[in-house]
């Protein structure tokens, strides 16, 4: 039982650290967006993807360690351990849930900010150049197909 507890504690601690790191990187992404530093933004997005992969691996490890135990069943699973060990596992569980919520809210806020910024820029372009509405132009001034994805405007716009 002690070995099982130590393995569970190690996985939960690793997952908590990965989530905290994800929150820090997400803050860097938000700062890069606000500074319009797209090089840092791309590097930060890559770091977020790496952390996401690590969190998914840790989650898989946790599921293998606690077969059939979802987050809703966690307290029942932790109830098998003595009081002190149960309190440690439940404390880690609560911290993970809190950090997950914090990272989720941060991501939602950043997505909302980017959506609003995109809507504002689209509105400005549409108001300034109504004849070019719905068209995308490349650096040479030639119309590009709409399937290129997003556009980036520099500060001289």
**Number of helices, counting only DSSP H or I runs of 4 residues or more:** 4
Task: Indicate the overall shape.
Answer: elongated
Give me the strand/helix succession: HHHHEE
Rg over alpha carbons: 22 Å
Number of strands: 2
Distance separating the two termini: 65 Å
Overall average pLDDT: 83
Structural class: mainly alpha
Question: Level of helix content?
Answer: over 70%
How would a textbook summarize the main sheet? 2 strands, antiparallel
How much strand content do the residues show? under 5%
Strand numbers in spatial order across the main sheet: 1-2
Low confidence ranges: none
Give a written overview of the molecule.
There is one protein chain. With 157 residues, the protein is an all-alpha fold. The protein is 72% helix and 3% strand. It has helices at 2-35, 38-65, 74-78, 83-128, and strands at 136-137, 143-144. The protein is elongated. The model has no long low-confidence stretch (mean pLDDT 83).
In short:
The protein has helices spanning 2-35, 38-65, 74-78, 83-128, and strands at 136-137, 143-144. Helices cover 72% and strands 3% of the residues.
Describe the SSE topology.
Blueprint: H1 2-35, H2 38-65, H3 74-78, H4 83-128, E1 136-137, E2 143-144
Antiparallel strand pairs: 1-2
Q: Can you give keywords for this protein?
A:
157 residues; 72% helix; two-stranded antiparallel sheet
């Amino acid at each position: 039982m002690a070995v099982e507890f130590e393995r569970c504690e190690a996985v939960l601690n690793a997952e908590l650290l990965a989530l905290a790191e994800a929150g820090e990187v997400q803050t860097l992404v938000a700062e890069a967006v606000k500074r319009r530093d797209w090089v840092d933004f791309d590097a930060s997005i890559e770091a977020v993807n790496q952390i996401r992969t690590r969190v998914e691996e840790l989650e898989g490890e946790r599921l293998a360690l606690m077969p059939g135990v979802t987050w809703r069943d966690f307290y029942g699973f932790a109830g098998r351990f003595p009081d002190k060990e149960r309190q440690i596992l439940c404390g880690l569980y609560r911290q993970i849930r809190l950090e997950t919520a914090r990272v989720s809210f941060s991501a939602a806020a950043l997505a909302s900010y980017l959506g609003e910024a995109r809507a504002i820029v689209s509105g400005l372009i549409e108001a300034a150049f109504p004849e070019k509405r719905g068209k995308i132009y490349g650096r040479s001034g030639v119309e590009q197909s709409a399937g290129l994805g997003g556009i980036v405007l520099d500060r001289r716009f």
